[in-house]
Structures are given as C-alpha cells and as structure tokens.
Amino acid sequence: MEIKEQLERIQQEAKTATEKAVAEGTKAAELKAAEIVKTATEAFDLKLKDAEQKHAAQVQDISVKYDEKAKQLDEALTTLNRVKEQQNQERIKSFADVIGSALEAKKDAIGSYANNVGTKSLDIAVPMDTKAVGVIGRVAGLEGDWQGAVGPAYEMEHLRNAIQVIPTQRDVIKYLRFSRKEGAIGMVAAGAAKPKLDFNTTVEEAPVRKIAGIVDVVDEFLEDTPGAIEFLRTELPQALLEVEDAQILKGDGTGQNLEGLFQVAAALNPALFTDVATLSNSWDRLAAAISQVRLAKRATTAAWVSPQVYLSLLINKDDNAGYTYPIVLNNMGQLTIGGVPIMQHSALAATEGIVGDFARGVKIFQRMGAVINFSTENKDNFETNVTSVRIEERIALPIYYPDGFVKIDFTAAPAV
Q: What residues does the Phage capsid-like C-terminal domain cover (predicted)?
C-alpha cells in the first residue's frame, strides 16, 4: 500500500507539475502573441497614418489643381464672352460705322491730302463683311462753327440685312444646279430591279459687277476733317446701298446689271389653294405666297413689300371698318406673318412684293468691299480746288433656288 500511495502521489505531482507547465507555457505564448499583435497593430497604425497623410496631400493637390483649372475656365469663359460681345458689336455695326472707322484710321492722311501734302490721290478700303443694319452713326464734337452735313433721305432697311455676304476672289461665281429629269425612288421586292432616278445638270454663272459713284467736294469742305468724315460715312454708303438694293430686287441681268430676284421669281398663283375662296386683301396674298414657296419645299425667311402695301397691312379692315387682323410684332417691333418678318422698301412699285428663302436661296459674293478714293486729277479739279470722292464695290448675286421666291402683284384679280 505504501508503494501504491507513493506511486499515486508521484503521479499526482507529475500531473500537477504538467498542468502548471502547460499553464505557464500558455501564458507565455499568450504574452508573446499579444506582443506580436501589438507590434503589428502599431506598424499598421503607422502605415495607415502615413497613407492618410499622403491621401490628404493628394486631395489638397487635386483641390489646388481644381481651383487652378476652375480659375482658368472662368478666365476662358470671360475671354470668350468678351470676344462674343466684340463680335456682336462688330456684327451690328452699320455700314456707316464701318466706313467711319476706316476714315478715322486715315484721318491724318486725309488732313495731309487736303493740305496738298504728299500724293494727289488717296485710297481708303472699307471692309464690308458685316451687314448693314440701317443705323446711321454720328461723329460727336465737331470743331469750330461747322455743324456737319445734312443729306437726303435713304432707306432704313437693306436687302443685305437678310442675305448672307461671302468674300470671293473670283470674277464669276459658278455653281452646278440639279433638277429632276425622270424616274423616282420606290418600293421594291426582294431581288427585284431597283427603279432609276435621273437628274438634269446645268452650270450656272453669276458675274461680278461693279456699283460705283463720284461726288465732288470743295477743298474747304474736305479740310474740315470731322465734317468730311460725317458726310462720307452717311451719304456715300447709303447711296451705294440703295443702288445695291435695287439691283438685288430688280436688276434685269443685261449689260452691267445684276440678275435680280424679280427676274427669276415665280408669280403668285392663288389657284393653287382651293381653300382660299378669294384673295381679297394683302394678308391673304402674303400668306398664299409663303405657302407657294413651301409647296416648292423651300422655307420663306423674309417678305419685302412696298410702303403702300405695308400700309394696307396695317389698316386692313372689313366692310364694317373693323380691323380684321391683329398686328403681330416680334420682340424687335417687326411686323410678321406666320413668324416671317415683313420689311418695306421703296425700290418696289406701289403694288409689288416678294417673299422667299433669303437665307439660303441667294447669296451676295463680295469681290471688293466699298473703297473710297480721293483725287484732284479729274476734269478741272486741280484748277478749281475741287476733290472728287469715289465709292465703289464689286459683287455677284447667284440665285441658287429660283423656286424659293414668289413675287406678288397686289392689284391683280384673284385667279378663279
């Protein structure tokens, strides 16, 4: 029994010692593991902090770059708006303003010329890429007792307002015109022959023609440069534009004349519109003419009538003297019909009018913008102290879509 007890005691002590060793080993392992975890966590925290700092720096850099780009964009938009505003100002310059600017730039040369210093002839080129707007400029601060020059009346609207103006270096504008010949596109069965479509082609030409005129002025007038500039910038361009208007509308194409719109435009044919019983007034005829242009698959962009017809539009009444149509104006105060602006021009006879696609159906090709020349070498100018002032331009007028224009006789009896 004694041996057995001793053996049991030894076994118990061994077990206790083993459990104690295991416990101590586990604790040591746990401590070591905790140390490893702590070290790893601290390293991770350092890396995380470093990453956060780098990210913050990148965000700051991106923010700075964004601010710089935003600033550059704002500056670019400001510049663009300034350029647009300048372009708008250039676009709305009147013909008189354009000439005035050119003359102001040559003010010293004009003064020297007037005082017989240097050449006896002087050329001043005037850019005419901008359209005339019908606004006559004024030079302020005339010197001395000179009160400027007052001339005759001129038209306030010009045809080039409604027509695209294109510069050219050619003396003849050529273009190819297609027209339907025969055949048509149609529906076909699988494997069947396709219908044939054919066109006629013709080469059209619009020669460049010159519009010019001369006015004689005494040297005493020319020496007063501000007064001379005022005179030239109002009288000469307006006189030239009125001839240009007449040629665009009524030129007969013979000699040195342009072929105008009235030469090629179709006449109004009220019989095309069965729902219009009678074309009893000017509004009906304008509406029918616009519809006739649309039947030709064109779009009317403007209507021009005589001042007399314009009046009939304003005062149109029924049998009881009541106004039958509302006076429709756009936001510019322009009389319109179906959204089409109506302009008046004295180059048209009292009962005439024309509507059409002035935006695409016709173009003004400008070989030479208005040029003003001064010279005393004309007739007896040198002896009499007179200077001849000449203005001239060279333009062509190709009419691409003759079927895009309809002329109206407001006195003709309606077709039955």
A: 155-410
Residue 200: predicted pLDDT: 87
CATH architecture of 96-173+206-409: 2-Layer Sandwich (3.30)
On whether the CB atoms of residues 356 and 261 are closer than 8 A, the answer is yes
- What is the H or E stretch that residue 205 is in? strand 197-207
Q: CA 113, CA 276: separation in Å to the nearest integer?
A: 65
302 forms bridges with which residues in the sheet?
Answer: 356
Q: Would you say 325 and 383 are in contact if contact means Cβ atoms under 8 Å apart?
A: no
pLDDT band at 133 (very low <50, low <70, confident <90, very high): very low
* CA-closest candidate to residue 210, choices 347, 368, 398, 390: 368
Where in the chain are the domains?
1-91, 96-173+206-409
Express each pLDDT in 274-312 by its tens digit.
Answer: 766 555 688 889 999 999 999 999 999 999 999 999 999
237: left (phi over 0), alpha (psi -120 to 50) or beta: alpha
d(CA 246, CA 249): 5
Residue 341, CB-side half-sphere exposure with 13 Å CA sphere = 16
pTM: 0.66
3-class SS shares of the chain: helix, strand, coil, % to 5: 45, 25, 35
Structure tokens that stand for 155 in this block? 């038209």
Contact 268, 414 (CB under 8 A): no
Q: Residue 235 corresponds to which tokens in the numbers above? A: 């009288």
